[in-house]
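sorry for the late reply, my laptop died twice this morning and i had to redo everyting from scratch. anyway the thing you sent over, i finally got around to it. pasting the sequence first so we're on the same page, its 160 residues, then the predicted structure underneath. double check i copied it right bc i was rushing
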Amino acid sequence: MALKTRFGRDRHGRFQVRLSAQERELLAGLPSQVLELLAAEDPSTRRLFPTAYPDDPKAEREYRSLVGESLLEHHRQALDTLAESVTADVLEAGELEQWMGALEVLRLVLGTQLQVTEDMTDIDPDDPRAAGFALYAYLSMVQDDLVEALASELPKGGKE
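ok and here's the structure:
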C-alpha cells in the first residue's frame, strides 16, 4: 500500500494539502513564535541573515543596509502565508513556494536553538532537546514533501 503524500498536484495545477488536524495546529502556531523572535532580534534568528562579507565590516554594513529589510520582509511574508493558509485544502504553486520558505525559516531558527549539526544521527530520547529534534525532523520531512510536490511537473532527466 502506497503512503499518501502530504501534497499532491491536481488536474488544475493546484496542490491538494493532506495534513492531519494535529499537523495543521502545530504548523499554525510556529510562525508567530518565529515572528516574535525576529521582532526581538533574538540571536537564534542570525542564520536567516547570512554574512556576505565576513572580512569587510564596511561592505557588510552596506550590504545589510541594502538587502536587510527586504530579506526580513521575505521571511515575514513566507511565515504569514503559512499561518494564513495552513487550514486550506488547496494551494497554488506560489503559496506552496512560500510554505517552503517558511519551513526553511522555522528549521534554521530551531536548528540554531538546538545547535543541530550534520553529524547528528541518533538523539537520546532522554535528551531534554529530544522534542525539539523531533519537531526539526518533522519540519524537514514536510519540506521534503513540498520539494517533491513542486518538482512533480519538472521534465524528467535523461533520454527517453
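The longest strand covers residues 7-9.
thats about all i looked at so far, will dig more tmrw
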